[in-house]
Design brief:
Number of strands: 14
Number of helices: 8
Shape: globular
Strand content: 25-35%
Strand order of the largest sheet: 8-9-10-7-11-12-13-14
CATH topology of the largest domain: Dihydrodipicolinate Reductase, domain 2
Length: 319
């Protein structure tokens, strides 16, 4: 027998909010109690399109929902999460949890004390290409280095955070997810109007492996790449195309030959399923089963934000 649908509320109908609503409206595992946005025209239009209740104000007790989706601007996350704690048992909040590491520390301490579960929207963990990459167990083959590249042109819809907090935090999370805890950070970059627009960082992990991260929002070409160098193979991953290629060493470097052997490339089949669908269904399953293993939590967000803060500070000191 199927579980009773989870009663949910949705706050925020911007770009990400609309996409969440699109997917949530198709799932029988949830019952959308209401949607809210500060833009009344957008609110009415989206509510009418998906046949859900629009509310002009966030209900005082959040309408008795079991799970809340906080998809509003970053600057409002802390207010809504703090209000919901103790009333709503499960909260999904778009990344980052807050825009400042000190605020993140404060709210994470309260989350730990209050017992509310909070999942943070590090959506790239749910990209089918990343899931395939994780399943390859590259760490068992001696990871030397992972390169992460994430570039875009400036977006008018993101105005309250820099490129490290907007884009690079996805790859900081993935670097830890794939390479383990971080011990050393070295960063360089460029900033304008008080915000970092271009960032390059090297992370040294406790395993001795490296992660090199590049994020830019002043680059016209949109790229989302991960390249893993192991002792015996090289794995390239395109997150936009959802493609994974493996280049294996055909001849051991220890073997002496008088000829050159090209590496053998293998193409790995990757599901084209939408990452956001994977992310949302993982959150719903975690709520229903009360098991949050493997999903990005508020604690994970704090770890990422502390690293992001150090990267930003190093870049700003260099300006």
């Amino acid at each position: 027998m199927d579980a009773r649908p989870l009663k949910i509320g949705i706050l925020g109908l911007g770009n990400m909010g609309k996409n969440h609503l699109r997917i949530l409206s198709l799932l029988r595992s949830v019952d959308i109690q209401y949607v809210y946005d500060t833009n009344p025209e957008c609110l009415r239009a989206m509510a009418a399109q998906y046949g859900v209740l629009a509310v002009d104000e966030v209900p005082l007790d959040f309408g008795g929902v079991e799970a809340l989706f906080v998809l509003t601007p970053t600057s409002t996350h802390m207010e809504y999460v703090e209000r919901a704690m103790g009333t709503v048992p499960y909260i999904f909040v778009e990344k980052p949890l807050t825009g400042h590491v000190d605020d993140t520390r404060t709210i994470v301490e309260r989350i730990r004390a209050g017992g509310t579960f909070v999942q943070v929207g590090f959506i790239e963990r749910f990209n089918p290409a990343v899931q395939v990459l994780k399943s390859l167990n590259c760490d068992e083959h001696g990871i030397i280095n992972i390169d992460f590249t994430r570039t875009s042109k400036m977006s008018s819809r993101i105005s309250d955070v820099g490129v490290v907090t907007d884009l690079m935090i996805h790859d900081i999370d993935l670097a830890i997810y794939l390479n383990g805890p971080v011990e050393t950070i070295v960063a360089h970059g460029a900033a304008s109007n008080g915000f970092v627009d271009f960032a390059s960082a090297m992370l040294v992990h406790s395993t001795g492996a490296l992660s090199r991260l590049l994020a830019s929002r002043i680059t016209e070409k949109k790229r989302r790449l991960i390249e893993v160098t192991c002792m015996d193979k090289f794995v390239s991953c395109d997150l936009l195309r959802k493609e994974v290629f493996i280049n294996m060493q055909s001849v051991s470097s220890k073997r002496k030959t008088n000829y050159v052997v090209a590496s053998a490339e293998e193409t790995v089949l990757v599901s084209q399923q939408e990452a956001l669908l994977n992310e949302i269904t993982s959150f719903i399953a975690a709520c229903n089963e009360n098991d949050f293993t493997g999903v990005p939590t508020a604690n994970d967000d704090l770890t990422v934000m502390e690293i992001a803060d150090e990267i930003q500070q190093q870049i700003m000191r260099g300006q």
